[in-house]
């Protein structure tokens, strides 16, 4: 009886979570007037005109390349710098290391919304806005603390004897890290990469503050411009949303087992 109740609750939650996505897909096949008149109903006819129009209006190919570039560069930077920093904080027993880790944990508590006004003001005066590379640099800054914290706990479980053996064989500190330690961090590295991909790919607020050039817009920014001050093309906007989220959904479905494995391995460590 208990299992039946839990199964029923799981089904209800699944319906609740899936309902917004299903609603977006259904409305993506409707005309603008049909969306406004009957947003919860089925389309009168399934037409792909919204998708073809959205593909052209949002410059889908350019937006995908921009999102992919920002995401890949940001993930590589976060993984490289956070793993090296975490390794330093764990293996070098300096008194200041605990303070650095504490400050990074405190930094995770501060919401970005509290920083965005001075953030845009300072970097705007420096003239580094409206650049995909600057955006990747900012993602490094905002993603470094969490990734370092996750690596820190995982590196503690790496046997120190492996590093000592490599150093006896003549390996330098950098070679020990990249050839011995870093390969052992693959489970947590995969988890961090997937979580940050979901965050960066879907992020709207930070790119909206940094990128103003049309050719530099990411996918979330491209979908926003279907909503004007006096009118909104809801059908095309829904189609644009579907085009934007399908790649990341496919990516997550392919990689979700690695997320679960990474979290479990981290817990064991």
Automatic annotation (TrEMBL):
Name of protein: Sugar ABC transporter permease
Signal peptide (UniProt feature, chain positions): none
Domain of life, source organism: Bacteria
Similarity comment text for this entry: Belongs to the binding-protein-dependent transport system permease family.
Gene3D superfamilies: MetI-like
Domain ABC transmembrane type-1: 64-255
Species name: Gordoniibacillus kamchatkensis
Pfam families linked: BPD_transp_1
Membrane topology: Multi-pass membrane protein
Keywords: Cell membrane, Membrane, Transmembrane, Transmembrane helix, Transport
